Amino acid sequence: MNILITGASSGFGLEATKIFIENGHTVVGLARRHKKLMEIKHLLGENFYPLTADMANLESIKEGIENLPEPFDQIDILINNAGLALNLNPAFDVDFQDWQTMIDVNIRGLSYITHLILPQMVARDDGYIINISSTAGNYPYYGSNIYGPTKAFVTSFSQNLRADLIGKNIRVSNVEPGLCSDTEFSNIRFKGDDARAESVYADVEAVTGREIAEIIYWLTTQPKHVNINRIEVMPTMQTFAGLTVYKKEKSPS
Ligand code: 8X3
Question: Computed from CA positions of residues 58, 62, 65, 68, in that sequence, does the dihedral angle turn out positive or negative?
Fold first, then answer.
């Protein structure tokens, strides 16, 4: 099978790329960083096709997809993995530009690439779309600002794709990871403050990027008539956000 993975240069995307190639498949790896993609190609060989494109730039996605050479142009599985969080501040304390970037990549780019690929799957009556959402789309938490809502969109979009694809041999799964280490997620969220990023995972046994990638691969090994709609994954050391209660300051007696 040929798999298109967005955000293939790191984290879940890179780990999933390796697993699919280890299992004899071909992968089109889409990412912004050309140099990183070339290093991955050097490592993984001719079954990996590097597609340099920016998920925030719809033209670059279109050009890349429309110019895929054979046999990489038939996409059997689309893994919409690219996505990011910026900032851990409350909504009133985040630049609108950060919101815009999250909306552009997590919603606009993801929808656009799906819109480009879906018709070829429908024409073949065969395909699989795996969207990488987040527990942040299920449970609001302080500082998630617009990140969680963009992931709530991804979850809702997966469900609606399932509704629209009834009767077709096209599967859709929504993967909802919680706290995961070995990715650049927090380094990007904190804009290069690596010490702060590291502190998120200190003293916690988080789920690893490889473990999420193995779950993604497992989904694709299920019989074709079996659709795993949603799969939510957290480390045992994480649980749901509590219902926050604000306590008034005690007035001085
Ligand atoms: C990321 C999950 O818990 O780090 O999608 O916000 S969390």
Answer: negative
